[in-house]
Amino acid sequence: MLVTIGVIYFMYILIKIYISVMEIGYVSKAKYDTPVVLTLKNYLKAADYKVASERMGMLSTLVDYLMFIFWIGFGLKWLDHLIMIDDMALKSVVYVIAFVAINYIISLPFDIYKTFVLDKKFGFSNIDVKLFITDALKGAAIFLIVGGAITWVITKIILNFENWWVWGFAVIFAFVLVINVIYPTLIAPIFNKFTILENSELKESIEKLLSSVGLKTEGVYTIDASKRDNRLNAYFGGLGKSKRVVLFDTLIEKLSKNELLAVLGHELGHFKHKDIIKNIAMTGVLLFLMFAIFGNLPQSLFVGAGVAKTPYTIIAFFMILSPIISFFWMPIFGLVSRQNEYRADAFGEECVNAVELANALQKLANENKSFPKSHPLFIFFYFSHPPLVERLKRLGMNLYSEDGTDKNLQSSCPAT
After folding, report:
1. pTM of the entire structure?
2. Strand order from edge to edge, sheet including 220-223
3. pLDDT, tens only, 273-300
4. Annotated catalytic, 345?
């Protein structure tokens, strides 16, 4: 069984690398096309950033494979012998925390390089070392508390229930729901400062827009996203009474009032079509599939790795192998999500108009240096949003000039 798992993981790694190679080749060639959506400067910069990111991703993927070999061949057994604790629940908590900590330390150089080298080079990152360390410590503290508690509960379930994976799924799915409720009010403020939107005219327009679709929120807030990053974004966070509108300060600075309302109209489309609930449901299906698989792993797999089948080794195998299931689930999720995005764009167009939404999308792409083209295979596996060029076409943009060449789309959308 261990050999079979090894072959599957190797094929998973090969597929990921192949997709990255295809994407690098595609973008490197498309870089020399006539720019669309982005200005010439940003088009070239976005292509370079995309290629550099994919190359770093390939190296990270290879390191993941080395870590897989380490854990399966030696690491799980070594960590089991290292942690000499008799109480099974406590040992599970310590084992899982140590497992995650080792993986985090190995991946840390990639995070540091991306944040302080790659993103700095391309003008994204504003974060300093102090804030980076502070964020890391806050994240570690949350994981120690929440991750430790979840591990303890799952261990108790494994030890006391024959079909533990059904109950384990129920607990984790309930946790996902709770996180969606408390994230905007309890977790996000740990990392960012939330401030009630002060622009009374904009706030009134947003509240009028929300009221038009019957959405009641806990408030409209801005966050100090610019202290870490220059990218633009906005989102609706939370479920039930905890829902709030969150605007990045960078978004307010770069978009006009109508463009910002068009972006929020798009997000309201997700609310109107219950896309958040659909996404949570799809997450539930994925979790159920994972628990069904990992709740029935054969004894031979653990024997092959030189460890006993215990709650903490089951959880470790779950974390080692779950990326494979997630990877092959992504195309299904992506297909549904891309259709949801088209529908949300159509709703955003109704809320304001196609011109403002198209211009907002272009500004987002230019500021975020999002390369507008990708290899079809990369889109199939990784895109939760349709390619921007396709979204603009759906909004009525004229993508090509009369001579058939690409052209910039800044003002080609007809008013509605």
Report:
1. 0.85
2. 194-196, 220-223, 244-248, 234-237
3. 888 888 889 999 999 999 999 888 889 8
4. yes
